[in-house]
Amino acid sequence: MKGDTSGRTVTATPAATVTGKTQTVSAGSLTVTPASSLVSQNIIDGSNAVVLGRYVLDASSSGEDAKVTTVQIRGITGTNADLDEVNSLQLFDVTNGSNRALTTGSNINNPSGNTGAADANLSFTMDSNALTVAKGGQMIVELRGNVNASSTPTATTQFTFDFSAGSPDWTVTGANTGKSITETLNTTAGATLTIVGAGTLTASLDTSSPLETWYTSGDEATIGVLKFLAVNEDMAVTDLGLSITTASSSAADFTSISLYKGTTLLKTLTNPAFTSDTQTFTFGTSDFVVPKGDDGAKMTIKAKFANIGTGYPGTAGHLVRIATSTTATQNKATGVSSGSSVNILGSASNSTGARYFKSLPIISAGSLTTGEQVLGNGTKNVYRFSVKADEAGDIELYKFNFTVATTTMDANSWKLVDETGAVVRSAVASAGATGATTVTITPNSSEYGATVITVPAGTTKTFVLSAVLSNVGAAGDSITVQLDGDAAYDSLATLFGAGASTVAADTNGDFVWSDRSDSSHTISTNDWFNGYKVPGLPTTNLDATAISY
Asked: N or C, where is the chain less crowded by C-beta within 10 Å?
């Protein structure tokens, strides 16, 4: 090799053979597959803009961007379906949360001229430059439309939109070269969509609805939890009637009633009227929507109880229960997809509710000291417990029953004192050795100075029960004591209370107390109650204390 001007010989560098980088030329390609994320499901007749098909457009192996200008999708019908029953068909790009229409205006497909149970290809022309799949990437496209069955839907009013038959064809070209790209349409079956009538909604009392609990006047408490289940479509509750279902409650027991979905307040009604024992509520179509499926939605009902006392409407001992109205037209819902209004099915049965008082006793078991836990002859402390009055007001105590069991020893001359050492009652006799008995204590006016024990609001009184023990000294000697609760409400004609001696004489009269709710309260007024459901006092009695030799 010589230079053209100098004529000198030039040596090339490098002298070895040089190999350049290999350039691979790939043809354009596009694979379209029905997306597994769209599953077979029911579609409400009359629904608009529902998803009928979803497809993955894959250009991951393409040598250039793939531009799509026309699309065909096979519409497959059941024996009671006609493609003319779907209309306003559009394609949308939903990649990465997008919601971009690909076919608008005259490119919206409205099938016509089809016959029942006949399959056909549905053709779409893309809006200008609407659909280009980048090489190496994917897009997700949805088919949406309106459904309007021409006859009553059956189990065979079904549609599937995929590429499994009929040889549908797409027009795809390379975005840069303009060369035609032969698409691959995956014949995997798409989702089968069954057209059904309007959805239904069923109401019931949820298992999370609380058991009957006691509260004080002015408290707000959950009195029931309703469960709603929607079938076929999401359902919006529009009308709901709630009924109070016990003779011992009325509108006067409510300062307010509030409805919640989770922690979200839906409605609050102050001083509800409960006309004919039912209070109706109305909701907007987006206020309380129940999603279709097994989970449904729950509505929590809370009541704020009326105050009790002179000039106030509340009544001590009233039991407030709630249920859905048994009048069908008072409970309605609207299908979110169909727009159809239906009566809510089922009926939420009575909740166990809540009972409220002017104030409440709160019972707790105490513990004996180490020294008191040594069994021996003589006067011994054998049981300790406390009674607290709720902050809402003073309470009074009239009677305590204790179950006592002894083994090969004697316990007599029982005495109850409070934490100040004041004697409530002493010299109470009991049965002799080896057996169980009941020890009854009522305040002795000559010892305690009153026939009732008053516990001021927010304070606690602790009581100690003692007995004279004898014949102690053999292995196995023991004594067990527990404060009795009541297994049921007393057997009075009403549950609003009675005089103290009347309650004490009842079969369920082991623990007798008063919330002092009667404006003329005495030991004889009807504001005395037994121990059933008193906070802290089980129906099976308070925790026992046992001492052994």
From this structure: N
- In the numeric block, the tokens 């909701």 are attached to 283
267 Cβ partners below 8 Å, 6+ apart? 258, 259, 281, 283
Instruction: Give the DSSP H/E element, type plus range, for residue 447.
Output: helix 445-448
Pairing label, strands 66-77, 120-125: antiparallel
CA R_g for the chain: 40
Query: CB–CB of 455/397 below 8 Å?
Result: yes
Residue recorded with tokens 């054998």: 382
pLDDT value at 433 more than 50: no
Q: Is residue 18 pLDDT above 90, yes or no?
A: no
Strand pairing of 86-93 and 171-174? unpaired
The region, left, alpha or beta by phi > 0 then psi within -120 to 50, assigned to residue 45 is beta
DSSP state at residue 250: -
**Do 31-196 and 200-357 come out as alike in CATH topology?**
yes
**Which one, of 287, 302, 299, 114, lies nearest residue 225 by Cα?**
299
Q: How far is residue 469's CA from residue 432's CA, in Å, rounded to a whole number?
A: 10
Q: Which residues pair with 361 in a beta bridge?
A: 389
Q: Which residues of 95-133 are buried (b: 16+ CB within 10 A; e: fewer)?
A: beeeeeebbeeebebebeebeeeebbebebebbeebbbb
Please give the single-letter amino acid code of residue 209: S
* pLDDT surpassing 80 at residue 430: no
User: Quick one: CA torsion of 514, 517, 519, 524, rounded to 10 degrees?
Assistant: -30
pTM above 0.90, yes or no: no
CATH (one of 3.90.550, 2.60.40, 3.90.930, 3.30.70) for 31-196: 2.60.40
The HSE-up count of residue 516 (CA atoms within 13 Å, CB side) is 17
Mean pLDDT, rounded, for 221-226? 96
- Residue 165 is classified by DSSP as S
- In degrees to the nearest 10, what's the CA dihedral of 189, 195, 200, 206? 0
Q: Cα 450 to chain center, whole Å?
A: 49
CA distance 292 to 234: 5
Residues 338-386: tens digit of each pLDDT: 888 999 998 778 899 899 999 999 999 999 999 999 999 999 999 999 9
Q: Is residue 329 classed as helix, strand or coil in its secondary structure?
A: helix
DSSP-derived secondary structure for 26-86 = -----EEEE-TTS--EEEETT--SEEEEEEEEE-TT-SS-EEEEEEEEEEEE-TT--GGGE
Least Cα distance to 482 among 441, 513, 452, 438 occurs for 438
At 134, which amino acid appears? A
The CATH code of domain 200-357 reads: 2.60.40
What are phi and psi for residue 532, nearest 5 degrees? -65, 120
Three-state helix/strand/coil letters over 251-284: HHHEEEEEEEECCEEEEEEECCCCECCEEEEECC
Q: Show me where the domains of the chain are located.
A: 31-196, 200-357, 361-548
Residue pLDDT, tens place only, 79-113 = 999 999 999 999 999 999 999 999 999 999 999 99
